[in-house]
Specification:
By secondary structure, the protein is mainly beta. The chain has four helices and 19 strands. 12% of the residues lie in helices and 42% in strands.
Length: 300
């Protein structure tokens, strides 16, 4: 009789819970918020799968900036639906998304609040040479969940958060004692080392040292890196060094090159800055190369 009464009591309690509805979103089955991802790259068609391979999601209370939850959307999920579901209590939220966070990028202080969270390069010491960041994309949306029982949705529209820089060098002769040609060392700096969660550049200024490789088809040395987004008034420069002794050969102002060649940054999504440096006994000619790199399909 004792166990029978206990069973009846438990059943009665369960009936009360189901009859009264959930008091917390976590007590309800399923998820109540759907995020739809898209990226148009400055055009009219959604081309997200061509540019973004994964998404990191961070949810913050819109009023206090307090961290609520995070999630990751894999490449398989993006390819199958370009959306994801979350479970949130009633309230107003800021949803921050970063695309393509991989080996060259890290996120820090994300649980300390929206105003403290940053995204940065993976350099861990001042002696470490950084080659590139990841080709990052950023999105922010605000959504309001009115009830744990009612579904909510929001569009997440990405923007480009990086710039690609291509440097081509021709005419520098630097040989070792074995007469083998040595590639010049290219540096792009000084640029901010991080961004906050409003995509504002910040942090110490750093230099990138992308690897140089020889292009037989163009007879040039080529270096490429992705960096955090900057504007036309950047004070960054490109530095060219001899590979054998690291002696500085040249310093080129990116701001002057952008202005002279009327390169648009602020009004474009995908920005690629290509610069050709041709050295001769008469000096150096600085120009935009008359070729473009053929995009390689990303391997997510």
């Amino acid at each position: 009789m004792k166990y029978k009464m206990l069973f009846i009591a438990l059943c009665s309690f369960a009936l009360i819970i189901f009859a009264s509805g959930c008091t917390k979103a976590e007590l309800c089955e399923g998820k109540n918020v759907t995020l739809y991802f898209q990226y148009k790259a400055g055009g009219t068609q959604d081309v997200l799968p061509e540019y973004i391979g994964s998404v990191m999601i961070y949810v913050y209370d819109a009023e206090t900036g307090k961290f609520v939850q995070s999630a990751k959307v894999s490449n398989n999920q993006l390819l199958s639906s370009q959306q994801t579901d979350l479970l949130l209590d009633p309230g107003k939220y800021d949803v921050i998304c970063w695309g393509n966070v991989n080996d060259n990028t890290l996120l820090a202080d994300v649980t300390s609040g929206k105003t403290k969270a940053i995204i940065a390069n993976t350099r861990t010491s001042s002696e470490q040479q950084l080659k590139t960041t990841d080709p990052l994309y950023y999105a922010k949306t605000t959504l309001e969940v009115s009830s744990e029982k009612l579904s909510s949705s929001a569009e997440v529209n990405f923007c480009c958060a990086h710039i690609d820089i291509w440097v081509y060098v021709k005419g520098i002769i630097d040989q070792s004692t074995t007469t083998a040609s040595i590639a010049p060392v290219i540096s792009v700096g000084y640029l901010p080392s991080s961004c906050d969660f409003d995509m504002r550049a910040q942090g110490d200024k750093i230099c990138y040292y992308p690897e140089s490789s020889y292009r037989e088809d163009r007879l040039v040395y080529m270096s490429h890196c992705s960096v955090f987004r900057f504007d036309e008034n950047t004070d960054a420069s490109i530095y060219v060094y001899n590979g054998s002794n690291r002696k500085l050969i040249d310093k080129i102002s990116l701001c002057e090159f952008i202005s002279k060649n009327q390169i648009s940054i602020s009004q474009k999504e995908e920005v690629s800055i290509a610069i050709l440096l041709e050295y001769s006994p008469l000096g150096v000619t600085i120009s935009i190369p008359d070729w473009k790199e053929v995009p390689v399909s990303p391997q997510w």
